[in-house]
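pinning this so it doesn't scroll away 📌
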Amino acid sequence: MNELINRLTESLGPAMSSSIGHALVGVIILVVGLFVVRLLAGLFSRLLSRVDFLQRTNPDGSVTNLASPIVSLIRGVLSVFVLMAVLQHFGLTDVLVPLREMVNKFTTAIPNIVGAGVIAYAGWLIAKIVSELAGIALRKVDQQIAERTGNEDLRIAGFGSGR
């Protein structure tokens, strides 16, 4: 990154190596970086909007879009990287230390987050299978109760489902 900034400063000549030029290069880095962040966030938004399981329909008919928080997280992380590049350009390394530590902690937490997501998905699948098996068993119990009592209206299969 520093090499790219140095090449840009050298190619723009002596006017850009002054204080105003240095500040202008920092602003250019910020603007271009935030523009790239906006483009990438839009790309991720379009890609994640096509993932069906991120679109939830609530019982009241409203739709919850789970892609929005993910895109906001991506936008925030990328913005932090842009700000780090701008601060590095201006030589504000003391300010960068906490940001670098935060980014390091976040990147070390990503595998744990992915692992937790996989475990949650596996748990959801197991719960769905157990729920279907319990429903089948309770319907069989309902059938046996109806045969023994002769009462077709007596059902226990609906107790667990809230229906």
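📌 and the second one:
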Amino acid sequence: MKANTRNQEFQDDKVAAIGIGAMIVFIALILVAAVAAAVIIQTAEALQQNAQQTGDDTADNMAGKVMINAAYVDGTTGYKLFVRLAPGSEPAPTNAITYQLMCPGTLPVEGAVGNVELMDGSGVAVATMQPSTGYTMILSGTAAGGLDCTAATVGTGSSVQAYIHVGSGGTTFETLSLGATAAGSKVV
């Protein structure tokens, strides 16, 4: 038997090594791109949800407000307001509507609005205000503890800042300017 006398030299196949290295880099780039895409998609979803929530909150605050058409001194008890709900509002239960009167020199007078009635003069009290319907409501100028923010106490030429809060909706701000303190004197 003859020994194998052929000289077999192994050659380094550098082309194959370069191909495997390129494939590893390519797979790494795909993984990095997938992670980056996931982060971008999550960020976009979070921003969209925040924008939606902000829009909903703004709509609730703007639509859930009372619009004051006119206000008058109501005898010695406080102020009578002619109001309606802002456009786009949902019906508002009157027991969820509160007010604050800020008068010069005293603590704020706070309470629930009183005597919410249809503005048609029928004197019909309502438990829930409906959009696009006119109402009258009373803001008492007195509160427990002797707080007094009535027109007679505040005086002619003064002003009272009124805030009306509608449940979980918005807040209406109006300055009641007292040109006169007699019952029926217009303040808005």
